[in-house]
Design a protein that fits this description.
Length: 165
């Protein structure tokens, strides 16, 4: 079991905390559901014996999931960013996170079946955006703005000035 980090994101779910933690742990390598805590008394969000709190780890980062009982939808004001080494990894995470009711948004963003927002970003895109070549970075940024799921080859072509952007 992984120890709780000094700072861990805590995700609020109505009643799906354990289900969501198991789903996320199945999507990412080196991930696990570490501890499921059941309510010892009735609370505003849960009844005695129901799952109250879940501690889980995604790629070495600790997270918490809480069953709060009320519907508190996630918004785009916070998202989890997944850095991908190549197009195959982008495609794999994109498919997994949009499966079962997720939705594509824009510019590499999606919403999973629980409404949590994710950014699925290929490593080269960060390199392009950090480039000292502002013109090339601008071409890559313009290309990204026209995409839903990011396409590594098209981003590279735009950055290098080989495509329309």
């Amino acid at each position: 079991m992984t120890a709780i980090s000094k700072i861990s994101p805590c995700l609020w779910f109505k009643t799906e905390a354990e289900e969501a933690a198991n789903f996320y742990a199945s999507v990412f390598p080196d991930s696990s559901v570490d501890k499921v805590t059941r309510a010892s008394i009735d609370t505003p969000g849960t009844k005695t014996g129901a799952v109250l709190f879940v501690e889980f780890t995604l790629c070495g980062q600790s997270f918490q999931a809480l069953n709060g009982g009320e519907d508190k939808p996630f918004t785009e004001a916070i998202s989890l960013s997944v850095l991908c080494k190549d197009q195959a990894e982008v495609d794999r995470y994109w498919a997994a996170l949009t499966a079962g009711g997720g939705a594509e948004i824009a510019c590499g963003w999606l919403s999973d079946r629980y409404g949590l927002r994710w950014q699925v970003v290929p490593e080269p895109m960060l390199q392009y955006l950090r480039s000292d070549d502002a013109e090339a970075a601008g071409r890559a940024m313009r290309a990204m703005m026209d995409m839903v799921k990011l396409d590594v080859a098209k981003l590279a072509a735009a950055y290098e000035g080989r495509g329309a952007a």
